[in-house]
């Protein structure tokens, strides 16, 4: 994500929203107005068409005279766009936000307080880590939408040709990646584009490090700790010896190089399986002929078992400045319903409700998801963390790591940048 627009004039997210009148309460507009159109911002293509159709059809059937319009947004630049639009006079009504970004908006009063709807929306059945990410100062603002643990997808034929077996430790995984790259020139033994900081986190966490740690009431960057440096050195080794991915590339659409024969292994969210196996006549075609050749396992940890991986996913909230908060909340209730969440589960997204976990299936992918999700972690719960992402600090840092820069010097520089943002 790019530098925040408002930061250029010295106004932080919380201040920008406060100056615009966001207070976490509804605008008080007439929800009964005939012909109201509820605008739902969904990000990226992860929400399947079946779910989108169900939401629109169900909402309009339950609210005669009103309509629902889904407006797809891009992840790139999302923080900037939400900061601007949630504080404006033309705010969307329901918005999806990345779980790592939720704290910034809940603390700034950008979302409607849903505390009195907590039980109705799922209560203690909701994913607890995402409830925490969507809560602030004891109040509940952004509900879980879906989660997705990162899995390793690999090509069985390349594994067999290299005489490899599924690794049981992180070190074995890296060794397999190097072997695959050596045996298949031009192919990434582990696909690792430079900006992909999400997939860098397990190496740091498994070495006992972290990107930032709680220090009293504040957060301090810790990329330069000895433990983090050990993980970063392993990341640089992977990027420079096992990966042929662009050193300045990002993690979007990994199914493209996978299906082009350029990848032997990649770590990606569980739902990427469906992108890889998408029909050739799809809008974004995959390689369905690889179904029998597609293997999957949970990334192994340093000492065996599942590694700590980033718990990707989203929260969903009603904008504080929605012109129709009751109708917007009605749409949110549909999105948290068992029927809607089951649709998400059947397409590989981990549902927002614990009780629906088995909707992702019982095959090897579902088993890998369960193993990975059990040990997943979130990014620091600082209200300023979205600002770190928006500034591109981690993306720039890992690009330089992939380009062979001095790990300790780069980590020290990145820590300073992160601390400055978190303290701002």
Question: Can you characterise this structure?
Answer:
The chain is 38% helix and 15% strand. The chain is α+β, with helices and mostly antiparallel strands and 424 residues long. Strands 2-1-3-12-6-13 form a six-stranded mixed beta sheet. It has a three-stranded antiparallel beta sheet with strand order 10-7-11. Helix 17 packs antiparallel against helix 18. The protein is globular.
N-to-C terminal Cα separation, in Å? 19 Å
**Shape descriptor:** globular
Number of strands: 13
Rg from alpha-carbon coordinates? 21 Å
Spatial order of the strands in the main sheet?
2-1-3-12-6-13
Query: What integer is the average pLDDT?
Result: 89
Flag low-confidence runs.
1-12
- β-strand amount: 5-15%
Seen as an oligomer or otherwise, the chain set is single chain
Structural class: alpha+beta
How many individual helices?
18
Largest sheet: 6 strands, mixed
Residues in helix, %: 25-40%
């Amino acid at each position: 994500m790019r530098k925040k627009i408002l930061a250029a004039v010295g106004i932080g997210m919380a201040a920008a929203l406060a100056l615009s009148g966001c207070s976490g309460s509804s605008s008080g507009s007439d929800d009964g107005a005939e012909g109201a159109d509820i605008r739902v911002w969904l990000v990226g293509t992860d929400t399947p068409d079946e779910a989108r159709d169900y939401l629109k059809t169900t909402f309009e059937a339950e609210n005669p005279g009103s309509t629902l319009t889904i407006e797809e947004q891009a992840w790139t630049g999302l923080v900037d766009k939400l900061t601007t639009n949630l504080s404006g006079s033309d705010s969307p009504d329901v918005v999806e936000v990345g779980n790592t970004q939720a704290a910034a908006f809940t603390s700034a009063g950008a979302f409607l307080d849903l505390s009195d709807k907590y039980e109705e929306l799922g209560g203690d059945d909701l994913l607890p880590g995402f409830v925490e990410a969507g809560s602030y100062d004891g109040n509940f603002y952004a509900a879980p939408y879906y989660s997705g643990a990162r899995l390793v997808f690999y090509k069985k034929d390349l594994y067999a040709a290299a005489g490899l077996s599924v690794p049981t430790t992180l070190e074995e995984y890296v060794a397999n990646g190097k072997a695959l790259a050596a045996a298949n020139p031009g192919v990434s033994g582990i696909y690792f584009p430079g900006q992909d900081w999400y997939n860098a986190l397990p190496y740091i966490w498994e070495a006992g490090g972290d990107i930032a740690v709680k220090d009293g009431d504040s957060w301090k960057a810790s990329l330069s700790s000895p433990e983090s440096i050990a993980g970063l050195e392993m990341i640089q080794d992977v990027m420079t010896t096992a990966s042929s991915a662009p050193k300045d590339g990002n993690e979007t659409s990994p199914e493209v190089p996978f299906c082009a024969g350029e990848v032997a292994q990649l770590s990606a969210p569980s739902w990427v399986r469906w992108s890889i196996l998408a029909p050739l006549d799809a809008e974004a075609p995959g390689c369905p002929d690889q179904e029998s050749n597609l293997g999957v396992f949970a990334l192994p940890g340093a000492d065996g078992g599942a590694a700590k991986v980033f718990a990707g996913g989203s929260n969903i909230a009603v904008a504080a400045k929605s012109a129709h908060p009751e109708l917007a909340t009605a749409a949110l209730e549909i999105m948290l319903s068992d029927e809607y969440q089951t649709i998400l589960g059947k397409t590989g997204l981990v549902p927002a409700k614990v009780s629906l976990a088995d909707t992702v299936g019982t095959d090897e992918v579902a088993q890998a998801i369960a193993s990975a999700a059990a040990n997943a972690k979130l990014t620091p719960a600082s209200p300023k963390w979205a600002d770190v992402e928006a500034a591109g600090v981690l993306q720039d840092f890992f690009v330089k790591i992939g380009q062979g820069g001095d790990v300790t010097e780069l980590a020290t520089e990145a820590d300073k940048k992160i601390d400055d943002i978190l303290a701002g």
